Amino acid sequence: MAKRARSQEAKEEKAGAILDMAAEMFATKEFERIKMSEIAKALGISNGILFVYFKTKEMLFFQLLMREYARRLENMEQRIEKADIGNYDLFKKLVLEEMAVIIEDSDMYIRLVSIRGAILEKNIDLEVMIESKQWFYNRFKEVALIIYERCKVFKPDEIMEIFLVQESILVGCKLCSSLPKDVLNIIDKYQMEGFKFAFKDNALKTMSYYLDGMHQHD
Amino acid sequence: MAKRARSQEAKEEKAGAILDMAAEMFATKEFERIKMSEIAKALGISNGILFVYFKTKEMLFFQLLMREYARRLENMEQRIEKADIGNYDLFKKLVLEEMAVIIEDSDMYIRLVSIRGAILEKNIDLEVMIESKQWFYNRFKEVALIIYERCKVFKPDEIMEIFLVQESILVGCKLCSSLPKDVLNIIDKYQMEGFKFAFKDNALKTMSYYLDGMHQHD
Fold first, then answer.
1. Are residues A149 and A191 in the same domain?
2. Do residues A178 and B118 lie in contact, with contact meaning Cβ atoms separated by under 8 Å?
3. Chain A nearest CA to B132, separation (Å)
4. Do residue B47 and residue B79 come from a single domain?
5. Which of A212, B25, B105, B113 ranks highest by number of CB atoms within 10 Å?
């Protein structure tokens, strides 16, 4: 039993190291350009071993996203514990603060989310998918319930909806504001300020108005 | 002069036919998988001729998006002319109706927008870019001004912002709700309804709340 536990632990450690390396590469390279063999090489393991841990590149990056989700939920739980979210304004403040942190620190998370449905989830084992989704769903629900208990403004399913919409706003604003430098220069030179779509400002503003509108309807 | 006009007309006709063919292929194929040579072949022209009209694949699809923008603005202008948008509720109704039409009929437009900044605008002649952007900006401003004159609720620059945010919501909700069939089956089977993120419903709801929040702040 002890041996099995140790080996399980070692496996998880190895899987973690692989995820770390994938994250490191993803920071400077697009998903399409990363090769599994490159990850194996950087870790000094064989392709065969790598594929024992993650059957496909999509599977590897899907698990990386799952780890990011887990971290986000954990962070959120900790924030909620410390913060007063006893009314709508305080809840809104917390959501926008968390969103600002994501925008500043978690470019990887936003990029992973934007390829989730269209790329990652298309090439994953059904079993892994079911297990991950169920785990995440239950965890997500748990955190929504904690928020609901602390802040009775929105129902748990509304809270889940808010965070899914937040994801869409992050991905959409990121994509629509990712203008190449040449384009930004042109916008400045020809005074087309209306085209300047600053990612952070716009994502936060959109989320803020969305929350206000939702609250108004509730 | 007459001859030049005719030849200009013929050129525009040819360019239009190329854009039509690109649109047709894009309906069933992703941008990355479409080859310029394939488009040329389908039109019965040489690669050389195709590249006279559009120097790069990005340029071709950027112009296709520009054509879509032009059509959208024209449609919007026509709708505004016919509709009563004398107050916030009527303006909101018009925006949401137009958005529903985009979602139902213009999958191509949404897909083009989502690759605009990150792909298309990275490989375009500066001159073409400047000319297109300026034309679009002036046209966009014109329509925003018409809306403003008919409906004094939002200022012209707020109206432009609304339509840029609409673009982000469309792209974000589309990406986050594009779940493969397997995933949808799992969601149903394991009763994780909170993960069902219907594109049309959610995009319209998000936009509706966003507008209400914006109106509230105005």
1. yes
2. yes
3. 11
4. no
5. B113
3-state secondary structure of B58: helix
Split into its structural domains, chain B has a count of 2
Q: Closest CB to B175: pick one of A117, A129, A140.
A: A117
Instruction: Pick the more confident residue, A6 or B207.
Output: B207
Q: Are residues A100 and A74 in the same domain?
A: yes
In terms of domains, do B42 and B64 share one?
no
Instruction: Output the six-digit token pair for A36.
Output: 């599994």
Residue A117 has a pLDDT of: 83
| DSSP code string of B124-183 | S-HHHHHHHHHHHHHHHHHHHHHHHHH-TTS-HHHHHHHHHHHHHHHHHHHHHH---HHH
Domain of residue B74, CATH code:
1.10.357.10
Contact A121, A62 (CB under 8 A): yes
**Which residues in chain A are contacts of B197 at CB distance < 8 A?**
164, 168
Q: Among residues A37, A54, A71, which one ends one of the domains?
A: A54
pLDDT digits (tens, 9 = 90+) for A95-150: 999 999 999 999 999 999 988 888 898 888 888 888 898 899 999 999 999 999 99
Residue B10 belongs to a domain with what CATH number? Answer: 1.10.10
- Considering the domain architecture, whether residues B118 and B43 belong to the same structural domain is answered as no
- Please give the residue range of the domain that contains residue A188: 56-217
| CA–CA dist A190, B138 (Å, integer) | 11
Are both A9 and A99 inside the same structural domain? no
Residue position matching structure tokens 């504001």: A177
Per-residue pLDDT reduced to its tens digit, B59-115: 999 999 999 999 999 999 999 988 889 999 999 999 999 999 999 999 999 999 988
User: Are residues B36 and B73 located together in one domain of the fold?
Assistant: no
Asked whether the beta carbons of residue A172 and residue B177 sit closer than 8 angstroms, the reply is no
- Tell me if B194 and A140 make a contact (CB, 8 A cut-off): yes
Contact A179 B208 (CB under 8 A): no
Pick from A122, A190, A214: CB nearest B180: A122
Q: Which residues, other chains included, contact B115 with Cβ-Cβ below 8 Å and sequence gap of 6+?
A: B31, B61
